[in-house]
Amino acid sequence: MVDRYDVAVAGAGPAGAQCARDLATRDYDVVVLETESEDEFPRQSNKSTAGTFPSMMSSFGIPDDVVMSYTDDVVLESPNEYYESYQPGAVLEFAEFKRFLVEDGRDNGAEYRFDARVSRPILDDDGVIEGVRYNGDEEVYADVVIDATGPAAPLASALDVVDLERENQAIGIEYEMEGVEMNHPEYADLRRAMMLRLDHNIAPGGYSWIFATGEDTAKVGLCYIQNDRHREFAEAGKTVDGYLDDWVSRDPRFADAEQIDEKVHRGSAHIQRPGQMHTDRFIAIGDTVPSIDPLWGEGIHKGMKSARAAAATVDRCLTDSERRIDAESLAVYETLWHRDVAPRAESRLALTELLYLAPNERYDRLMRDLQKTDDDILAKANRGEKAGMARLLHLDDVPLLAKYARERFGV
Ligand SMILES: Cc1cc2nc3c(=O)[nH]c(=O)nc-3n(C[C@H](O)[C@H](O)[C@H](O)COP(=O)(O)OP(=O)(O)OC[C@H]3O[C@@H](n4cnc5c(N)ncnc54)[C@H](O)[C@@H]3O)c2cc1C
């Protein structure tokens, strides 16, 4: 007997599981294939700090049970300055959040197969995908196939839909810690905050973070892309683990802190310009695209929005009396992605590249500027609006901009 569904989704991350939730709610026959075993799920894929905002929680009906802590502020730190901004948020228990998405999808009729490692597409005589092969020779057929395997991307790569480039791969690691001095006199009060720190001495060409999960507990981590920028500031031979250990041993906030039950989360994501995201009968979502926000690494909300855009696209195409699922019909996904998931993705990526190229002193100045700037300018810059970005630049940034232009355009 051939297994046949309306939609087959590879990967039960936030993107895949949300897509299945949306499709099952609309009564489509959907199956999700997840490589990990159900008993331990999620184990290796329990990678995320999972800081998010109320807009995500309310748009996707996420219950309070999966929240570790609520925060009031976002704090940006540079080596010698900091800037606080009121912005309520939530740090999720990522594993519980993933399990909630699976259970809720199942309650709505989605089928899950764990221990199901997707390896490649099944193609028809015209080279169009009509199903997937998993665990060697097992097969599932579907009208539409969705790759939501994050950076693994076995289907999107085989179909030449996305090319996740190694030089754009950001790697990250974090510890869950207790005994952290969250209100140290030399630093901002982090007791109810998500803090991101720009400092090449800690995370060369990237950033580090402390996200409060309790009075003296926090998720503490860092990430960077191993590109030229990283190498410019990096110490030879030092690994991402080494950088985190070094920060933890030097920063006075961790003087009496310890790792909780050896809890370590690690993973990667690609930070690159958006390209193609679909073809005949196929859509890529979440970190497979990749949808992650280049500036601050917010991937959960972006991935779930891309999942919703994909589900809406599939719904539209399968509602059509002819069930048209060719590339042209599915192209509405890319329109929705650029409109709703990551508007101005190009400018935000340019801002990110410029930001991580800047030296430490420039970060201190950025914090001083932000302290004097109204939140509206920051919000505009953050959205990638040129007017907001220009307000944060100075005349003596010309060499920095020239360096950026040389790297980006070779001029
Ligand atoms: C250290 C770190 C910290 C982060 N912090 C934050 C944060 O604070 N806030 C935020 O919003 N984002 C954060 N992110 C980013 C966020 O976690 C990701 O963007 C998000 O998880 C992407 O979701 P996804 O569903 O696209 O992919 P993934 O989460 O990668 O899920 C992919 C799923 O597919 C499965 N899979 C993989 N290969 C296969 C295969 N061949 N067959 C079947 N299944 C497969 C995996 O097991 C996994 O369950 C962080 C990421 C890292 C690494």
UniProtKB/TrEMBL annotation:
InterPro entries found in the cross-reference section: Dggglyphlred_Halo, FAD-bd, FAD/NAD-bd_sf, Geranylgeranyl_reductase
Residue span, FAD-binding domain: 5-312
GO terms assigned for molecular function: FAD binding
Family matches, as Gene3D superfamilies: FAD/NAD(P)-binding domain (3.50.50.60)
Protein name stated in the entry: NAD(P)/FAD-dependent oxidoreductase
